Each structure stands twice: as structure tokens, then as C-alpha cells.
UniProtKB/TrEMBL annotation:
Subcellular location: Cell outer membrane
Name of the protein described by the UniProt record: TonB-dependent receptor
Membrane topology annotation: Multi-pass membrane protein
First-listed, main subcellular location of the protein, grouped into a coarse class: membrane
Length: 713
């Protein structure tokens, strides 16, 4: 546990812990033992995107993701994909702020907190690191890094790393392939100013496993997966469900000292991503609609495939922005004023690709070859959204009683405007949406003495509506989902009262928290031609209250035990409208909100031997707003063991470590992928019958083990 002095609950893990785990460890996996963190995943190595980190019952799209000062949430859905950002060997630290985000964070979705990932600085000495991993599911992964050291006496240093990993899909046929590059440059000036340029590139091919309903899980268990054999006319062949993602991120966080002792922090950044999230589907040459227009289709190899096609879901994202702030001290006050601007373009389309007699389609980027009679490509969806975000923030920090008492007040005004086009024929073409949210906050910390501290805070946070809510979707020539540009953002008011004890041996934190939500937005899924498309359910008002606790022992004779606990009581405040009626949801327990979570960890590091053990228990949680279906509680055990060998020649600090994931091979569900309003038919307040729909879940990874051999030079 890192030392914490701020006015909020926060958990931080460093590279010292991360590098004792499997080499494939992601930022989410690193903080998964923290109080309130509920990690759902299907891939033990973190390659696939079937993953979600919820915090205090709030979904992954409500957790702001900041990597080296830039936002890295998917701009379409606000979900986070930590395997895209960094290799574990290059991460310096990962912090989870459970209740809020920092005032300067460039995020629009932090109602559930903030995950901050910081990369390592280049080494001052020339050298590097190489490691190789082999394990269950035919895992093979190579990682190599080279540090230039300080170049001359310029204060400039740099590093670049490359990794290539592949493994079989843990649930059914297929493989995961991940190629990744991290690089960093740092320029240090004599007056202490710094310029850092950090970059990350990812190229991934991976399986997005199907998410079972409870009935599917009870009938098939882990065997619920895509088919390994193609049958003409089928819509479940694995190669048509193989996702592709390429992305590059660049961030340049810099600090300068200006006249009058003014500190300037400025972070320009850029992200470009290409993704195809396809699914297996079927089409016929006749009886189709392009928006609201009937069309006939040209489908190559239609007879050989029996009508099977690949439903492509292609997204191109371009994001650029800058976040800058000025800070100056005035006696006991420290004032910060900042501005954040971001411009993003999100282009989404759903073309189709033909498949051959064997079920295989061509390139994920260029094969979309199913056309209409006029020769133009056929789309089920085609939208482009241009978003501009402006935020001004002002914070005043006052230090009193010889810095024992700190009072911080701030205001952030968040403005987001969107301009979009829906290119399918129909009643909708151009859409606009504008949202403005004032986000005040205050925190007080009081240091009783060198070991005891109390803190209290009140913050406001928001979650802007996702792009998908703006647009009509069509089925059978009619509007299936009505776009709505007037949806209000989720808004939360939260309070925390906390206590910390930190001495030479023990670090402990306790926080009582309370949230009140309006326009609660819960991430869910809808399906268009079998493609899972993220959408939201408006849960209205919600109240969440609970307790977070964590404690850790600093290394004592090599041992460092850790424990975390959370109790959560989250309830829906109102009935939810469905059509012209209302479901009786008032007073029900909120979805994805286990009442109890607990974790125990133990790290041992003494001389040549090191290792870690962790146990996590997650209580049962409802998957519907009517509380008529529940995911059972589950537990997981992980273990890693390592041994350091003596250096030999230019080979420095070689080591061998073995990681055991899901050590006891628990056959469980790990999370709720898609909550529903009601699983069973229900009678609304006006007497009409509201049909139920089945929620979907993530299947927890099976037992896996991976051995890593690593050495520096």
C-alpha cells in the first residue's frame, strides 16, 4: 500500500507488485484486490476485451481511465480496455480512486471513480530487460526493452519496448494475438522542468466469447462457446467472431516554471484507433432494407455459404486534445486554474463480408464486399459523430495549522457538444446534442499527528450519454430504436468520511460513502445482426451507501499481508418507465452491486525468493432491475512464485517466476455483461404485462499457469 494523504479514498499499486505477477498482468488486474473493485473477465491473460471493472457497483463505463494524463476510455461507449494501453513491465503505478476523479482529470464519465496509469521513466543508465513466458493454452510471449540512458549531458533519455504474445482462446476455438510497443522520452532541464513524451501502439486479433444467459450457463457451463465447425447457413462459426483492433496513443505531459513562481502543467495528446467487432450472421439476397428502403443484395459465394455472412462493425476513432493548468502559491493558499479541450471523430458503420464454403471471410479492414443492386456497399448502420469537449476548472487549496489542516474547494464546468449524421435512408439524418454540467467539490483533511489522519469530501460527477443513444436503428424497414439527443447526463453527488493510519509498519484506510444519482445510466447490450452494440438503460434515481476498508503491513521479515473489505447497499429510488407503463423497481437492489466483497493478499520477498498469494470473494449480485435474477457469489485464488538467480557477466538479475491463475479452477460466472430490466414477465403499475428478457454474463477464466524467465542487461 502506497502512502496516501489526499482527501479521498484511493488505492495504489506499484511496479514492485505488478512485476511479481504474470507477465500479462493488466492495469485492471493490478488493482482488482482494492476495496470496491469488481473485475469481470473471461480471458486469464487479459488479451480479449471481455472484461469490465466496476467500482462500488458502478459499471466500467462510469470509471474514468487516465493514461499519462490523457483519457483512454473508448469514446463511443466509455468502456476501458487496459490490455491496449501498456505492457506490465513498463507500468510504474496504477491508482484507483474509488469515489471520484481529480478535478483536472480529462474525463466525462467518472461517476464511479478513476483509474490512473503511469508509465516508467527512461533509465538514466543504458540497459534493458528481456523476458519470455510460456504457459497453459499454449501461451507464448516475448518482451524486450532497451533504455538509451542519458544521451551525452543533454538531460535527454529514452526507451522503447516490444512484446508479442499469443495464446489459445480459453473458451472454445480460436487464438488471441497481441503485438505491442511502448516508448518514452524524457527531457530534464537544470531548473527542474521536464518534458515527457509517452507512446503506445497495439495490434490485436482476439476472440470475443459469447456471453451466456443463466439458462445457457446452467445447460452448457464452460462449453458455451462459438462453434469450431462451419455449417452452411449457420451464424455461430468462430472465425466470423474474431475481433481486430489497432491503436496508437501519444501523450506529452510537461511541467514548466514560469515567472512569479507560476507552475505550468500542459499535456497535449492524440489517439487513433481502428476496430472491427464482427459477428457471424446470415443474409438473403431479397427481403432486405437499407434503412427504410427495400433493397436486393449481391452476396458473393451465397450459395456455397448457405447465406452465412460476417456482420462487420467497423469503428474509426480520432481523438486530439490538450489539458493545461497554471498553479501559484499565495502564502497559505495554492490556486490552480485549468482548461481542457478535446476534439474527437467517431465513425461507425456496419457493412457485411461474404464467407466461403468453409466459413472464412477475408481481411477485417477491406473485405466488406456485400453490395446493393446499384453497386454501393450495404450497411445496417452508418453514423459519424464529431464531439467537442470544453472544461474549465478552478481549485483553491488552503493549508493551516502548519499544514496539518488542508481545505480544498473547486469547481469544474464541463461542456460537451456533439454533431452527428445518420447516413441510412430514413426520418433521421442530422443530429446535435449539447450538455453542460457544473461539478463543484470540496475536501478537508486533518492530520492529527504523524500517524493519524481524517478526511471528508463532497464531490459531484457525471456520465455523458454515449453516442449510440443519438441515432435511430432500423429493422425491417421501420425504426427499431428511436434516437434521442435530449437524454440528460447521469449526475451524482457523493460524500465520504474517512480515516487513515500510517506508520512504519501498518497502513490502513477506512471510508464511509454515500451517493445520490439522477438519470442513472447502466451499460447494457443490444444486438444488430448478432453484433453486440453497447447501449444504456436509464435507471432513474439511485442511492448507494457503504463502507470501504483496506489495511496492509509493510515488509516484515519479507512478509507483506493485505486485506480489503467493502459493504454496499445500493437501491433504486423510483419505478422505471417501459413504454407507457412503469416497472415496480422502487426500493429494489441495484444491478452489479454485491453487498459484500473481500480480498486477502500476501506478498513474500526475502533475498532470492519472492511470491504472492491472493484470495477474492465477491458476493451475489442482481442482474435485473426487478431483482428477479441473481448471479451467484464466487471466489478466486491466485498464486505466483519466483526465484532470483545471481548476475553473470552482462546478464543482470535473472529470475524465474511462475503464476497460477484461478488456482482451484473455480467454475463460475465472473460478472454481468448485459443487465436487463426484468428476466420474467412482470405486471406494470398500470396493469400491462411487460415482457422479460434474459441478462447475459461473463464466464470466469479456467485454471492457467504461466512461467516467465526474465533478465536485465
Amino acid at each position: 500500500m502506497a502512502l496516501q494523504t489526499g482527501g479521498d479514498m484511493r488505492s495504489t499499486v506499484t511496479s514492485e507488485y505488478i512485476n511479481k505477477q504474470a507477465s500479462t498482468t493488466t492495469a485492471y488486474q493490478a488493482v482488482s484486490l482494492s476495496p470496491g473493485a469488481n473485475l469481470s473477465q473471461s480471458d486469464p491473460y487479459g488479451f480479449a476485451a471481455n472484461t469490465q471493472l466496476s467500482v462500488r457497483g458502478l459499471g466500467g463505463n462510469e470509471v474514468g481511465q487516465v493514461w499519462e494524463g490523457m483519457p483512454v476510455n473508448d469514446i463511443e461507449t466509455y468502456n476501458g480496455y487496459p490490455s491496449f494501453w501498456a505492457d506490465g513491465e513498463d507500468i510504474d503505478s496504477v491508482s484507483l480512486t474509488q469515489g471520484s476523479s481529480t478535478i483536472a482529470a480529462p474525463v466525462v464519465n467518472a461517476a464511479g471513480g478513476q483509474v490512473t496509469t503511469t508509465m516508467r521513466d527512461p533509465s538514466k543508465k543504458m540497459g534493458g530487460l528481456v523476458d519470455y513466458s510460456y504457459g497453459t493454452l499454449n501461451l507464448e510471449r516475448f518482451y524486450g526493452r532497451f533504455d538509451t540512458g542519458e544521451i551525452g549531458h543533454t538531460g535527454l533519455s529514452a526507451y522503447v519496448s516490444f512484446s508479442n504474445g499469443t495464446a489459445k482462446n480459453s473458451l472454445g476455438p480460436g487464438r488471441q494475438t497481441r503485438r505491442h510497443v511502448d516508448f518514452g522520452f524524457k527531457k530534464e532541464f537544470n531548473n527542474g522542468d521536464t518534458i515527457r513524451l509517452m507512446g503506445s501502439y497495439i495490434d490485436m486479433d482476439y476472440m470475443y466469447n459469447p456471453n451466456p444467459t443463466m439458462a445457457d450457463w446452467q445447460a452448457s457451463g464452460r462449453s458455451y462457446a462459438w462453434s469450431g465447425t462451419f455449417s452452411p447457413g449457420s451464424s455461430d462459426y468462430w472465425t466470423q467472431n474474431r475481433w481486430k483492433w489497432e491503436q496508437i496513443m501519444l501523450s506529452m505531459p510537461s511541467e514548466f516554471t514560469l515567472p512569479e513562481k507560476i507552475k505550468l502543467n500542459v499535456t497535449p495528446y492524440f489517439l487513433y484507433a481502428m476496430q472491427n467487432s464482427p459477428a457471424s450472421s446470415s443474409l438473403s439476397t431479397d427481403g432486405n432494407y437499407y434503412g427504410t428502403q427495400p433493397v436486393s443484395l449481391n452476396i458473393p459465394d451465397n450459395a456455397a455459404s448457405g447465406g452465412s455472412v460476417r456482420s462487420d462493425y467497423v469503428g474509426l476513432q480520432s481523438v486530439g486534445g490538450v489539458n493545461a493548468s497554471l498553479t501559484r502559491k499565495f502564502g497559505v493558499q495554492k490556486v490552480t486554474f485549468g482548461y481542457w479541450y478535446q476534439y474527437s471523430v467517431d465513425s461507425l458503420s456496419m457493412p457485411f463480408s461474404s464467407v466461403g464454403a468453409g466459413g472464412d471471410a477475408g481481411s477485417a479492414w477491406s473485405t466488406h464486399n456485400i453490395t446493393m443492386a446499384n453497386g454501393q456497399p450495404y450497411y445496417a448502420e452508418k453514423e459519424q459523430t464529431i464531439s467537442q469537449t470544453n472544461a474549465l476548472y478552478l481549485q483553491d487549496e488552503i493549508s493551516l495549522l502548519h499544514d496539518r489542516l488542508k481545505i480544498i474547494g473547486g469547481l469544474k464546468t464541463l461542456m460537451m457538444s456533439r454533431d452527428g449524421t445518420n447516413s441510412l435512408p430514413g426520418p433521421q439524418y442530422h443530429v446535435t446534442a449539447n450538455n453542460f454540467e457544473p461539478l463543484p467539490r470540496v475536501s478537508i483533511t486533518y492530520k492529527i499527528n504523524n500517524h493519524h489522519q481524517i478526511f471528508v469530501n463532497g464531490t459531484t460527477n457525471t456520465l455523458m450519454p454515449i453516442d449510440d443513444t443519438l441515432y435511430n436503428s432500423y429493422s425491417g424497414g421501420a425504426v427499431a430504436t428511436q434516437g434521442n439527443s435530449a437524454i440528460k447526463p447521469e449526475y451524482s453527488i457523493s460524500e465520504e468520511l474517512g480515516y487513515r493510519y500510517q506508520d512504519r509498519y501498518v497502513h490502513a484506510s477506512l471510508a464511509l460513502f454515500n451517493y445520490n444519482f439522477t438519470n442513472r445510466q447502466v451499460s447494457s447490450l443490444r444486438y444488430v445482426n448478432n453484433v453486440a452494440v453497447y447501449s444504456t438503460i436509464n435507471g432513474g434515481g439511485q442511492t448507494s451507501r457503504g463502507v470501504d476498508f483496506e489495511a496492509g503491513l509493510m515488509p516484515f521479515h519479507g512478509f507483506s499481508p493485505y486485506v480489503s473489505l467493502e459493504y454496499l447497499h445500493a437501491t433504486i429510488d423510483n419505478n422505471i418507465q417501459v413504454g407507457n407503463d412503469y416497472l415496480r423497481t422502487a426500493g429494489k437492489i441495484a444491478v452489479r452491486s454485491p453487498s459484500f466483497q473481500g480480498a486477502v493478499g500476501l506478498v513474500y520477498d526475502h533475498k532470492n525468493i519472492f511470491g504472492s498469494f491472493s484470495f477474492k470473494y465477491t458476493g451475489s449480485q442482481y442482474s435485473t432491475f426487478m431483482d428477479d435474477e441473481k448471479m451467484p457469489a464466487y471466489k478466486t485464488f491466485n498464486l505466483s512464485l519466483g526465484y532470483r538467480l545471481p548476475s553473470v557477466g552482462f546478464v543482470k538479475h535473472p529470475e524465474i517466476r511462475v503464476a497460477f491463475i484461478n488456482l482451484t479452477d473455480e467454475k463460475v460466472l465472473s460478472g454481468i455483461a448485459s443487465p436487463a430490466l426484468n428476466a420474467n414477465n412482470a405486471v406494470g403499475t398500470h396493469g400491462t404485462t411487460i415482457a422479460g428478457s434474459a441478462p447475459e454474463y461473463y464466464i470466469a477464466p479456467r485454471f492457467t499457469t504461466a512461467m516467465t524467465i526474465a533478465a536485465g542487461f
